[in-house]
Amino acid sequence: MPLFDVYPLYNVTPVSGKDILVYDDEGTEYLDLYGGHAVISIGHAHPNYVDAITNQVNTLGFYSNAIQNPLQKQLADKLEALSGCKDYELFLCNSGAEANENALKLASFKTGKKRVVAFSKGFHGRTSAAVAATDNKNIIAPINAQQAVTILPLNDVEGVKAELEKGDVCAVIVEFIQGIGGLDQGTVEFFEQVDKLCKANNTMFIADEIQCGYGRSGKFFAFQHYNVTPDIISMAKGMGNGFPIGGILIHPDIEAKYGMLGTTFGGNHLACAAGLAVLNTIEEENLIENTNIISEYFVEKAKTIPQIKNIKGRGLMLGLEFDFEVGDLRKKLIYDEHIFTGGAANKKLLRILPPLTIKKEHVDQFFETLKKVLEEIQETV
């Protein structure tokens, strides 16, 4: 049976990994500066992670949410301690799209309204309401397009104000650092004014931290770089280091009711074991501190390369912008130099999303290689 052909694939077959390195089926070593869309937060096959999942699956891999699962409470308590999001409540699911879907549903329940405000170049998932709030018409089917969504330019405070004052907006959803859109960020004034406008207009402010959360921005959540208090915070990618897990943090002003949200697999025993291993490792290995140290080092190195016209993002969610499209550069890096990097909707942007365990020696390796490849490309022009 053939696979449904919806992914353009590189001709590389990883079979194992160790920290920031992966190995293909021919034994070739690759430097992973992409982490599978920022999913690998604590490195491939981290011993804490492997032990936690192995021990849990040897005990109990799954039971439904109809019973007590103390691992969920342990995960919630650890998440509160590390994130600083005191008094929020946790709902667990399986993916970023599900997290945003539940966030939007909860906002609609809370406010009694149904329209959503989102922003250009934003990406929030591929399910019903989440994809409708995504600024990409190519992935929105007619069944999704029936959702009531208004997409505004990022930093358009007056536009947000005008829409919220119409009285029918249940939620404003925003990435504090855009992912696939190209690492654009709102201004301090924009984020803080939107937060105030939401609170003044009975509208839920949703921080989409699917990609920029879990330490990747240099703080636990990217919204923490600003003076804002989201009503709902969505999480996923770095949360399980590859094990499918997502969730939302919910402000205590939103009251839970039985049946309001639900999931079969969300918050299962294996997922919680993976999630706890990630949080414990972030804490024990000071990975947020490492993110800031390596980010500063990376940016200084990037500034020495004249072909790089702009450096975008924060922490270890970085973009290198050139004055040419980077598709061929990415191919040379992966096939000739064995380095994984990422692309974006901005075709001139190279995305860097490594595990938070990355060291300066890896940054040196990347930039030495990048200089060489850029010289080779220039010689062929």
From TrEMBL:
Transmembrane segments: none annotated. It comes from Flavivirga eckloniae. The lineage of its organism: Bacteria, Pseudomonadati, Bacteroidota, Flavobacteriia, Flavobacteriales. InterPro entries: Aminotrans_3, Aminotrans_3_PPA_site, Class-III_PLP-dep_AT, PyrdxlP-dep_Trfase, PyrdxlP-dep_Trfase_major, PyrdxlP-dep_Trfase_small. Belongs to the class-III pyridoxal-phosphate-dependent aminotransferase family. PANTHER family: ACETYLORNITHINE AMINOTRANSFERASE, MITOCHONDRIAL (PTHR11986:SF79), AMINOTRANSFERASE CLASS III (PTHR11986). GO terms for molecular function: identical protein binding; pyridoxal phosphate binding; transaminase activity. SUPFAM superfamilies: PLP-dependent transferases. Its cofactor is pyridoxal 5'-phosphate. The keyword Transferase applies. It comes from the Bacteria. Keywords: Aminotransferase, Pyridoxal phosphate, Transferase. This is Aspartate aminotransferase family protein. Pfam families: Aminotran_3 (PF00202).
